[in-house]
Structure formats: structure tokens, C-alpha cells
Amino acid sequence: MDFCRKFAAIFMLVLIAAAVVTLPARGQDRKPGEYEVKAVFIYNLAKFIEWPDKSLDNISTLTLYILGEDPFGTDLDAIRDKLIQGKRFVVKQIDSPDALKNAGILFISSSEKERLRDILKGISGLPILTVGDTKSFAQRGVMVNFYIENSKIRFEINMEAANLARLKFSSNLLRMGTIIAPPKGKEK
Amino acid sequence: MTKAFTSVLARVRLCLIKRYIGSIILLLACLAILSPAYAAKSGDNVTRDLTDLDLKELMEIEVVTVYGASKFEQKITEAPAAVSIVTSSDIKRYGYRTLADIMQSIRGFYTTYDRNYHYLGMRGFSRPGDYNSRFLLLVDGHRVNDNIYNTAFIGTEFPIDVDLIDRVEVIRGPSSSIYGTNAFMGVINVITRRVNDLKGMEVSGEAARYDTYKGRLSYGRKFENGLEAIASGSIYDSKGQSELYYREFDNPATNNGIAGNADGDRYHSLFSTLMLKGLRLQGAYVSRDKTIPTAPWGVEFNNTGTKTSDERGYLDLKYEHIFDDRSNITTTLFYDYYLYRGTYMLPGAPNKDSTDGRWWGGDVKLTTRILKRNNIIVGGEFIDNTKQDQSNYDEQPYSLYLDDKRNSRTWALYVQDEIKILENLILNAGLRHDYYDTFGGTTNPRVALIYRPLEPTTIKFLYGTAFRAPSPYELYYSDGNVSSKANPDLKPETIETYELVLEQSLGKGFRLATSLFFNKIDDLISLETDAADGLDVFRNIERLETKGVELELEKKWDNGLKGLISYTYQETENKQTDEAVTNSPRHLAKANLMVPLLKDKIFAGLEEQYVSKRKLLNGSDTGSAFITNLTFSAQNFIKGMEVFLSVYNLFGQTYEDPASREHNQSAIEQDGIGFRLKMVYRFW
User: Fold this and answer.
1) Rounded to a whole number, what is the distance in angstroms from the first to the last CA of chain B?
2) Which backbone phi and psi does B283 adopt, to 5 degrees?
3) A68 touches A108 (CB < 8 A)
């Protein structure tokens, strides 16, 4: 029957193609998810940032605090315990900025947008790199804010906020991001 | 649901589900056999490699999102439709020349070319001669379909050079609930490149078989004050095949069926975008001339005077205001025009057919997340068609057959809510009301339930209806009642669709996407001959039903190797006559393989496309076609330079596409083997 022959022919094609696609299976192969990339991004960011004198001296770890709903899940496993600037990278989930003890990195989840102002107030002046991925977070005082443009991850930098925390961003980092100047005196 | 409908569903279900499950089992079986490590836990390898990347490389990784399905950026797995994305790297590495080439590569799509326009088909439906009015074509959100034929231009008459495309989102199924008319079979949203990808000057030149040449010059710059500017121009000139043979004209009076130098195609196009803060001004323009070798509408054969010329342009001003991180409002104002001139060398008197379409309009869209777990969109649209003029006349001796001047207005209101009922359960529901001063109002819903029982598994249940308003061409065109007459009483045609989508990540870089679909088209506007006076007229006559299944398997490696295979089975039936429908292949199969031959330097893109036989208007059918395209691309040898070498229809297969009724030919032969050499150079 013509129909059966065609059907069989097409499935042969599918099988052959599947074989072609499958055979050279060698490890590394999954398409990375958004937060997988963002996690590695944050880890890499830290390499381009200089914390103020002595703020990291007495601690052997660099901590990434996740404030609010954790969008990363297991995506953070890849960067846990890696060494960075001679320190072990640690991830902690926290519910309140009061839990912040040391210098480090604070990722503010979009679930915290209502209390962003209070959060930033609570840590103002502390040597903490703030990171977010919610629209308008950079304008509102978060130092590094991810956004997606044409499917690729981009980031905004709020220089004023970084200066206030006495964090130094390398010029390479500044070149890769979009610099946002916060509207002065209009903080909501 | 009516009784008849239920019984149809029952009949469909058995045959379809059997085939669907069978196919999935087969695919899974072949996966299990071929990938012994299939069950192994994946992830570690990938992430280890990711952490080796630096920031610059991380910024190049694509995280897949889609905008066009819901009018906001969302993950493909959360979109209320089965979505496919083609990226700029696919366009380069597979050597796609037109939007038609791109569409042809996508699961479930097929194209038809009559050597004048390209027609798009999907889910068993394609009407050569309908100017793709059952698809909505958008460029950066701007509606490209014109206001006379509602053409979705996908061939060389598409205003945007494919080199300027960042990605193409293809949203299957009806989306009238947010887009209104034409979002009938699907929506194609073309997103253009931004300044981040187009910095400085870019020059491109290409030469191809049949004396085909194309040149492009593009410039992009980001200014200190934040202004982003892109400008680009392209010129294309193709002589086409110097001799085309049509057996229907094979007699001495018509040059033994040979049309000489009658396949010419040329266009020039311009595109520009300016962006500053929330403001964007975009302009596009294309003018194309195509000589028609097939002698449609009874014109003289082998007369190179028969041609069409299409000119399309628009300006689109968009402003986005962000209130806070939860709400934003977008307003758009646009002005569009479309000019068409056709010259038809009828024996004795050249006939001119022309249209002049002009329209302007605007829309407002508010997106807000003020309610927890809800993403609400409310919008309104207004279009004022200031001109929808059609005319037809003989030049010498002058004789006027049609001088129809129209204008019309439409407005629409829509609302959509995406509700996260549970962390892994999303309800996306939308409703839109459109009002036309021609036929009145129509309301269309779409409901999607998106369930993610496990991290790698997404199941979508989709229901929607859509409409297509009759176009001014269908309503008012006539050639003075010589062979066709107008029908101003046409109603919109409608579609109702049910779809079940399964998207499954299989680990080890495998992704499986399957769809089971059922479409019901009613009041389809079709051309028929009125028995009373012998004149052709458009009427709401046909009722079609399509059922089918789609399977797609994708695998990606971090080293750039990637493979994609898909298979579509579909059955479309005319419910009036219980007959199969023309230009509706039962089987479509596609395989794409991209191989990096030399890391970051040389790539090979191999493409296989199978289309089974398609029924013709005269009752016979075209044979099946199996087309192979191969493209080699080279980069990073000379800084800023890329070279591409493509071979199309590698095995020179002879195949035909079904022709529409204005042709004497029942099917039109397509090009044999073709070559193209292309070079791109970037200055910084």
C-alpha cells in the first residue's frame, strides 16, 4: 500500500536522522536555562569587582545571599564551593536583609519588589554587591540588574549605588553593561 | 458542541491517537536504543562548561523566550501555543535567502511558489492565490499584511532583508484573541537585530545561479546620549531561468511551451530603526518587480511584459512608559501604504490591474502584574483605512473595468490574563472583540492550560477561535463582470482549534515536542463560479476539518553541533464534499543538522525536506518532493569576514508545486540545483 510505504519511508528518515543526531553523544550537551546562565554570570561578575579594603579580609568565604523567592533552585549547584579571589563561594537563602552579616553579594528576587526600598535602606553603606533581574531595579538602586534583549542576557549597572557601597567595578565590566544614572531625588 | 462534531471527534480520535502514540513510542524507542546514557543524570557537564565561560561568552548564550504568543516576553514552555524559533545563526548557517526559505524549514510548514508569490501552508491548509492572508505577519510587532489582499509577504517582496533578522517566532494556531484578523492559522513575528549585534558598518554581497546578485549595506551605532540607530539598504537583481518549459503551452504558436527570459525578479529595500529611551521609530520600504513566466489569467505566453510590481512601506512610532516594575504602557502610532501594479499582456490589449492601499492607526497596551500571580494585558487598537482602491483597465484602447474606491475603519479591544494557579499550573486566557464597519463585530477567545507536572515536562491544552475578515479584494474586486464579480455581502471566515502539546526535555540535550491538533474551518471564503452567469465570485462556502500530529526531536551540543528532526501527519477534508483538499500534503518530514567542522571557524548546515504528494485542482497530484540543501560557512579567518557557500536542491530533484486556478498549468515546476556564494564584511 502506497500509504504504508510512505509512512515507513518517513520513519526510516526519522530513525536515520535520530541516529545521526544521537551517535556522537559526548557529555556537554544541554541547552542552558536562563537561571543557569544567570548563576554563572553572578559568579563571573564577582571577578570584576573589588570590595573595599579589609571588608573581606577576615572571612574565608564569599557569600551569595538570595533574598526572597529563589528562582535558581539547583542551577546554583555549579558555582557552589568554587574558589573566587581566594575565597570559597557560598550560597545562602535568606528571608530578611537583617540576616546579612558580612560583605558579599545579595541577589534580590523579583518577589521583593514591594520592599526593595526598605531592603536597600537596610544595607546602605555596607560593602554588598546588589544584583537583581527585575525591570526598573537598577533605576531604584540595585547595582547590577539583568534583563533580556533578543534572547540574550544583558545587564544594567547603577554606578552611583556601587560608589556608595565603595565597590570598584572594573572598566571591562562597565564596557559590557549599560550604565544607568539613577534619577536623583526621585527615589520611590 | 454539536452532535455531528462529537461524532467526528470520536472518529478522528481513534485513528489519530493510535498513530500519535505509535509515533512517540517509536521515537522514544530509537532514542533509548541509540543513547545508552539516556537515563543518566544530566546537567553536571553542562554547568561545568558554563562556568568556564567568561562574561562576554555568557552574554552570547541565548535563553529562549517568545514575545509574539502573549505580547510579553515569556518562556516558550509557558507560551499559550506550540512555538518555534529560528535564529539569525540558523539563517546564516543554513543559507536561507527569504522568509519563505525560513518558513519551509519549520516543523509543519510548507511553501508553494508560482514564480510570482510564495504561499505558505500549515496544518494541511494552503491556498495558492490567497496571498497568505490566513497568517499574520509582524515585524517587531508591526502588522505587515496589507489592507487590500491582506498579503503576508514572504518571498522577495518581504520588506526586511533576512540578514537583518535576529529571530523569527512562529506561533501556531489562532491568535485572534490578541491580534484580530489574519491570526488564523498562525502568527509569524519577525524580530530585527539590535545595535548590540550590528555595530558599525556591515557590507554583504552575494551571487547565485540564474544571474542573481544581491548587495546590502548596513550601519548601526549607539550614541553617547543613548540613541541607538540602525539603517540598512539592499538591492537584489535576478534574471531568473532563461528558459522555462510548460507543456500546457507546447505548440508552435506559443514558442513550443518555452518562456524565454521571463523569470526576472528585482527589488530594493530600506530599513531603519531609531531608539531613544522608551521611544522607537521604525521605517521599512520595499519595491519589487517580478516578471511572470507562467502566463496566468489567459495572457499571451512568452511575453515578458506580464509582470507585477509591489511596493510596501510603513513608519511605526512606539513609546513604552514604565510606571514601576509591575506595570508598563505601550502606545503605537503607524502609517502604512501598499501599491500594487500588475501588467497583464492579454492578446490585443494590455490590461492593467492596480491597487492603492493607505492606512494609519494606533494602539495602546497596558501590561500589569499588580494582582499577585496575574499578568494582565488590556489593549485597544484602531485602524483607519483611508484608501482601499482597486482599479482595472485596458491601456490601449482604453477601457475601464473597475474603479472601486473604498475606505473603512476597524477598532478592537482585548484583554488577556496569565494566572499562575499553582507554581506548575498556568492558565492563560484571552478575549478580543473586533468591530468592522463592513460586517460588524466578532469576538474571539483563547484559553490555554499549561501544566508542568515535572521539571522537564510541559503539557499544554489549547483552545481558540479566530476569524479572518473578508479582504477588499474578495469583497469588491471584479473585472467589470467579464469573468468575475464582486460580493460585498461576505462574512468573516472562522476557525476553531483544539490542540494538545507535550514538550519534554529528555536529558542529554534532547528535547521532544509533540502536538495533536484538530482544526475546524467554517465559512471559508473561496472562489467559485456562479452557475447562473458563469462569473467567478468569492463566497463563504467551504467547511474544512484537519486533524493531525506533529513530532519534533532536537538535540544540541555545547560545541555547536545541533540536530533537529520533525515529522507531521495531517488529514484535511472538505466536509461539504467529503473530499481531500488541494495542496494539502499528508506527510511532512524535515531534518536539519549543523556541524562545526573546525571550531568557531567552519560550519556545515545540512537540510532535508520531504513533502508528500499534494492534490491538484484538476484532481491529479504532484509527486512527493525530497529536497536537500547544504551550506558551508567560514568565519574568523580574516577579522570581520564571513563567507558562505550554499547548494540548494543538491540532487537536482525535479518537483512541482500546485498552481492556483488562474493558471493553465495544474502544477508549476520549481528550480533545480542552485548555488550561492555570499560574503559579509564588518568594519568597526
Assistant:
1) 62
2) -135, 145
3) yes
Which residue of chain A comes nearest to B222, CA vs CA?
Answer: A178
Question: Which of B610, B673, B651 lies closest to B105 in space, CA to CA?
Answer: B610
CA distance B121 to B658: 12
**Which of the four pLDDT bands, split at 50, 70 and 90, describes residue B23?**
low
Q: How many CB atoms lie within 10 A of CB A77?
A: 15
The alpha carbon of residue B425 and the mean position of all alpha carbons in its chain are separated, in whole angstroms, by 30
B264-291, pLDDT tens digit by residue?
999 999 999 999 988 999 999 999 999 9
Contact B509 A31 (CB under 8 A): yes
pTM score = 0.82
Distance CA B340, CA B312 (A): 9
Minimal CA separation from A103 to chain B, in Å: 23
Any long-range contacts for B195-199 (C-beta under 8 Å, 24+ apart)?
B195/B220, B195/B221, B195/B222, B195/B228, B195/B229, B195/B230, B195/B275, B196/A149, B196/A150, B196/A152, B196/A154, B197/A150, B197/B88, B197/B166, B198/B164, B198/B230, B199/B684
Q: Are B265 and B290 in contact (CB under 8 A)?
A: yes
Question: Hunting for cell 540574550 — which residue is that?
Answer: A152
ipTM of the complex: 0.73
Q: Is B191 on the interface with A (CB under 8 A)?
A: yes
pLDDT over 70 at B28, yes or no: no
Kindly report, residue by residue over A149-179, the tens digit of the pLDDT: 877 888 999 988 888 888 888 888 888 888 8
Q: Is residue B623 packed enough to be buried (19+ CB in 10 Å), middle (13-18) or exposed (0-12)?
A: middle
pLDDT band at B481 (very low <50, low <70, confident <90, very high): confident
Give kind and range of the element (H or E) at residue A92.
strand A87-94
* Residue among B35, B42, B48, B58 with most chain A CBs within 10 A, to mutate: B58
Helix ranges (H only) for B407-532 are 472-476
Length of chain B: 684
Nearest to B259 by CA among B290, B291, B294: B294
The SS3 call for residue B349 is strand
| Per-residue model confidence as pLDDT tens digits over B39-79 | 333 333 444 467 777 877 888 777 777 888 888 888 888 89
**CA dihedral sign of residues B286, B292, B294, B300:** positive
Q: What is the pLDDT of residues A39-93, one digit of tens each?
A: 888 988 888 888 887 777 777 888 899 988 888 877 787 788 888 877 888 888 8
Nearest Cα residue to B518 out of B496, B550, B542, B492: B496
Q: Which residues of B touch A151 (CB under 8 A)?
A: 62-65, 87, 166-167
Query: Could you tell me the CA-to-CA distances from B642 to A156, B93, B203 in Å, in that order?
Result: 31, 11, 10
Residue A18 scores a pLDDT above 70: no
How far apart CA B70 and CA B418 sit, in angstroms, is: 9
Angle subtended by helix axes A34-47 and B44-51, to nearest 10: 30
| DSSP characters over B30-80 | HHHHH-GGGGS--SHHHHHHHHTS-HHHHTT-B--EESTTTTS-EEGGGSS
The reported pLDDT for the residue numbered B239 is 96
